[in-house]
Every structure is written in C-alpha cells, then in structure tokens.
C-alpha cells in the first residue's frame, strides 16, 4: 500500500513539474476482464462471471476520474469490460483498430482529453509503447486483468506508470 501511495505521489509530482499552460492528455489503458475459457475454439469469448464482476469494479475505480471517452477493441470481452464504465460516464464505447493504434486520427481525437482504452495482454502494453514512442513495456501475463497503465502527455513530456488494482 505504501508503494502504491509513493507511485501516486511521484506521478503527481512529475505531472505538476510540467508547464501548466500546455495541453494535457491522459490515457488509462487496461486489459479486458477475465474471459470465458470453457470453449477453447472460441476466438471471441464473452467475459466469465468473475470478468463481469471485474468490469463493474473498473467502473467503480473510474467513478471519480473524469473520462472524456472510452475506447475498446472490437471483441466481446473488451466491449463488455468497457461498457459499465462508459455507461457510468454517459459516453458510448468507441471501437479502435488494433492494427492502427495511436495513429494521427486517434491522437487528434483524444488531444487534451482523459481517455480509457480497453485492450488485450499484447495490445495494451504495445499501445502504451506507441504513445511513449519507446519499447518500455512487454506483453502482460495472461492472468493479469488488474493492471492499469496511466500515461500523461503534457507538451513534450510523457509520464507513465502501472498500478495494480485488486
């Protein structure tokens, strides 16, 4: 718990060191919640019961965070993870293409906003790396459904961190 508080403190100290007159964009990136693994041949499974509970938990986590937009890849499990948060925020889930993540159109659409992006164990860290313009993060463990990557861009400064939410 102390490490979590220190991470938050460090994140906000670094964030406040940025020039306050510059546009600030913040991305929260998560992996979809637990999926149904009972049918091995299903390439687009729904969330299982634990995943549905986690999707609701994410909605509670983001309750106090002002989100301007919610994005998800076009899979049932990511859309089901994103939907409770989007409903709470009164926004529609927008679908992004995992083959053109963080392209110029996405950057323009999200500039100056606070955005949730729901992806997969491989696309979530890859998306973060594209935002940071560096290979900082590797694919997530297949059982990691509780990490949130937070990336803030203010001018030329980019700050990132990972938090584990129980």
What's the short story on this structure?
Helices cover 36% and strands 22% of the residues.
Give me some keywords for this one.
6 strands, 166 residues, 5 helices, 6-stranded mixed β-sheet
Explain the layout of strands and helices.
Elements: H1 2-17, E1 24-31, H2 49-61, E2 69-72, H3 76-89, E3 93-95, H4 104-110, E4 114-119, H5 123-132, E5 147-154, E6 157-164
Parallel strand pairs: 1-4, 2-3, 2-4
Antiparallel strand pairs: 1-5, 5-6
Helix pairs in contact: 2-3
Task: Walk me through this protein's architecture.
- The longest helix has 16 residues, at 2-17.
- The protein contains five helices and six strands; from the N terminus they run αβαβαβαβαββ.
- Helix 2 (49-61) packs parallel to helix 3 (76-89).
- The mean pLDDT is 91.
- Strands 3-2-4-1-5-6 form a six-stranded mixed β-sheet, with helices on both faces.
- The protein has helices spanning 2-17, 49-61, 76-89, 104-110, 123-132, and strands at residues 24-31, 69-72, 93-95, 114-119, 147-154, 157-164.
- The protein is globular, with a radius of gyration of 16 Å.
- Helices cover 36% and strands 22% of the residues.
- With 166 residues, the protein is of the alpha/beta class.
